[in-house]
Amino acid sequence: MLAWPAPLLPTLPGTGPALKLHDTARGEVVATAPDRVARMYVCGITPYDATHLGHAATYLAFDLVNRLWRDAGHGVHYVQNVTDIDDPLLERAERDGEDWVVLGMRETALFREDMTALRVLPPDDYVGAVESIPRIVAHVETLLDEGLAYPLDDGTGDVYHDIAQAPGFGGESGYDEATMLTLSAERGGDPDRPGKRNRLDPLLWRGQRPGEPSWPGPRGVAGRPGWHVECTTIALATIGMGFDVQGGGSDLVFPHHEFSAVHAEALTAAMTGVKQPFAKAYVHAAMIGLDGEKMSKSRGNLVFVSKLRGEGVDPMAIRLALLSGHYRTDRAWTQDLLDRARARLARWRRAVALPAGVPAAPVLAALRERLTDDLDTPGAIAAVDAWAERTLAAGDHPALEEGAPALVRDAVDALLGIALDPVAPEPAPAG
CB count, 10 Å around CB of 228? Predict the structure, then answer.
């Protein structure tokens, strides 16, 4: 599956420090310590709808991780999936009387356009669940062969992972059983399904149902894969076990990331005899609300990147608005937030358009220091704000540093992903 074109990254003087991130599993901020090539897997979209601002905020957070590793001198192997077969996609296609394949392709294409506009660095491997089904089937077969998975005896052909044989289960989320059961029911699980050995056992393979697409499956049973094993398989096929960061939204802590790890660790132990962790750190971005309410498809209050772009909003203003809050803090999208981002973007662009400014080296150092401390974007933005205000207030003072605006422009571009090159004016905000 094709990703999207990569924006050019300016080269900055020196190298950045080691990146520290909050690891959900350990409950603390830890230093990442990649090898020469850092490895990251970020869970992608289920393409039944366009990119909303919650999606965008998540992918912007991990775009910063990508940029900061590169600034520290690492290569980066970044993998993202597309869940192009799942219940929400099929339900939306049925509701709208549309072919599920066409719907998925259209929304994936729109997602690519949004990521390009927001200047998100593309993944090196952009992999769909459908293209991974033969590998998924092989993995389910392995778990069945090892006695780690079991089919229900109700004739459906459904296969579940037996978590009683997963001693590390619960280590990623740290949730108790009651919380897990609640979240499983809310997020696509089936804790009340008759015939399961444990209410929390996750689905590996769903036998064919009338009217649903299907593929040849384990033990010859046609059907389609469960959600979690899709990401397990894609990660193992691309970057392997023990990669540096597993990323996604906070709603993926459980069940998705917990079960993806359970599947991967069981498979690896079965195939190699070696127990090792799926990922070194589990990093999660918080939720975006709208005017004080949770943003969700059920509420009908999603704000889409493509709609904002269609209204003439500069994608860099969208990016700057989303980065103005810390990635681990639930926060609201408001018109005021966007208006402030527009004003800030215009101010920064005026400052970097000058031939000289106050010294830029402290700004670069501050950006690196703040961003490598668990992606402190508010602190990084404050540093650029202070530089822009001092530069714009200085006039033609003889002590100004020639070339300083260009270095700030490149630093903001490379590290925050915000292009400050002059652009055509956008429409003034309503009201």
Answer: 25
DSSP of 112-163: HHHHHHTTPPPPSEEEETGGGHHHHHHHHHHHHHTTSEEE-SSSS--EEE-G
CA dihedral 388, 390, 393, 398 (to 10 degrees): -110
Say if residue 424's pLDDT is above 90: no
Contact 122, 8 (CB under 8 A): no
Q: Which residues does 73 contact at the CB level (< 8 Å), separation at least 6?
A: 15
Span 235-259, mean pLDDT? 98
DSSP 79: E
Q: Does 412 score more than 70 pLDDT?
A: yes
**What global pTM score does this model have?**
0.95
pLDDT at 429: 47
User: For residues 127 and 81, is the Cβ–Cβ distance under 8 A?
Assistant: yes
Output the pLDDT for position 296: 64
Q: Apex CA 85: angle with CA 83 and CA 87, to 5°?
A: 105
CB neighbour burial string for 271-287, b if at least 16 within 10 angstroms, e if fewer: eeeeeebbbbbbbbbbb
d(CA 295, CA 14): 41
